[in-house]
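Comment thread on ticket #2218

A.B. wrote:
> Attaching the input chain for the structure job we discussed in standup.
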Amino acid sequence: MKNLDWIKTLIIFSSIVIAGFFIGNMHKTGKKYDRFVQVKGLSEREVYADLAVWPMNITLTGNDLKSLKKEIEKQNEEVYSFFLRQGFDKNELTKGIANINDSRANIYNSNSQNNEYRYLAKSEFTVRTKEVKKLQKALIESLELISKDILLGSKNTWRPIEYIFTGLNDLKPSMIEEATKNAREVAEKFARDSESQVGEIRIARQGLFTIKDRDQNTPEIKIVRVVSTIDFQLKE
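C.D. wrote:
> Ran it. Output below, let me know if you need it in another format.
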């Protein structure tokens, strides 16, 4: 019986020692895992817009609906022909709807009866192209339409052409790689100052990609930017 009690005591003691070892090791590992540095990595690219959209209106006034309809159709064809002469394909040109407002039907405007023209017509027209430079040239050349009594106006008078960059997916892999390298460089600088070494990535958080104009004067040039937040393990 005494031998059996001794064996039981030895088993319990061994269990306590083993459990203590694992608990201590877990605590040590946890402390080691808690040693990390959180840094941000930046990647930027300057790119040119690869798509341009110019939405515009053709505006006319008149007092006879039939005559106004004919004039709308005529001016639409003039504008359409103008862009064809500028070298655009038919699939880059879109004729929109025409809206006609009757000023005398506005009961809230007491002066509407005194207007020289009863009807105001606006016909929509849009150019959508990847030939950005060509569209910029057409914007300048469009002044010749004034000589044909065509009032062509952009829907956005402050910025007639909308510039878009569509190649983001092609840039993402290299930019994420660059942001990660940039973050590691920052972490290594911190590690040297703290007499440590940078280990593996603990947690990585990819930021959102943003596309903004480089400045107000050159909206066709874009800045693509991403900031990644990464936690690196630190080791002795």
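A.B. wrote:
> Thanks. Noting for the ticket: The radius of gyration is 35 Å.
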